[in-house]
Amino acid sequence: MRPRTRTGNLWRVTDRLKSLPLPDDPNLAAWASALNDAGHWAQVYDSGWRLVFATDESRLTYGDTGAGTVLPMGFHLYSAEATRFRVSVNRGGFALPEVRRARFLEIGPYILGSTPGGREELRRVVDPEFAELVDQLEPKDPPPVWSPSGLSYTAAGLEAVSLTTQIRIDDAHGNLAGVCNLAKPSAGMSQLAASVFTVDLSHLERMRLVEHADRRPVAILMADLEASSPLARRLSTTRYFAFTRRLVRAMDDRIIDEGGIVGRHTGDGVVAYFLAETIGSESAAARSCVVTARTLRGILAEVAQRSELSQTELSLRFGLHWGATVYMGRIITRGRSEVTALGDEPNETARIEACATGGRALASKSLIERLDQADADLLGLDLRRLTYTPLTELASATDKAKRDAPSIAVCEI
Q: What is the CA radius of gyration of the chain?
């Protein structure tokens, strides 16, 4: 079986992230280190309910990508600073005072039961909005583990629910050393596994980069299966579905292996993006785009054999283009997550692809001329001798290409 991730080519957002220092207390430090290594969403509080550690994955959820953090480190769980953080960053239910107050009344008894100085000390350290509630609390010793009610927060512009488990951490003498707040999405692990268990980790990292939409230099590839309608009519629905699944999986694998981001699937076609930022340079992004087109053409024999089809029945056409300022981002809804791009260049790529009939791969001059000499040599392209043809002059030019992108110069690769 081919590896899902080429670790030598793994680009990660987390490479930019510097983990927070471990807590001074050895018990808390051991918990913090283990939770961080396992990739959990977790935060660790000391015996005074002050935040002393947050895992890398927890911080990335809040947008931390460097040495600093937006989390209120060193502050009490219900301090004014922590309240401001929850309202401004978590949002969701935290934006409602009644939700915050109900949460305080739920967890407050355990906090009061472990706060030296009792009510007066707790009243002093909490946000003034909770001070009047302190007298309503009955102190309780924190149990070994408990699960507060779920809370909503805002993620990717949508309201989501997070479930937490509070775990008591004791020292060698059985005294409270701190508390671990272990969080997870509301979905069960079987649902989470079904969604991401087979996903390539390097691809998830690249998608995380475009979580927030922005303009980026990118090589764009569009591929589509020619004459798919007659094939779909000839085959049974079951057989055609199995064929399409094999083709899509194979295409996605090759795109990911070359460091690309899989975009939208439309019918038997796919869109891929190769970011200069993650692949290393504009030349490297253009090279990966060309390599992927050639590799995708090579998968047809294997897919045809496994689908009991003649290879002559399958043909992919390709359009390759460069976008200097493509506006890219990730769109997340309750039903899907995908990366998309807006601008003239994605539309022009579609026009190039539509003209590449007969299983050709047409690349724009603006893409090819991003290649430096070393990458051009690797691809076997002589940049000095290449000639280009405007789309409008191609015999296969479509009406849309003549209308929308007549002057874009392309060559066959």
A: 27
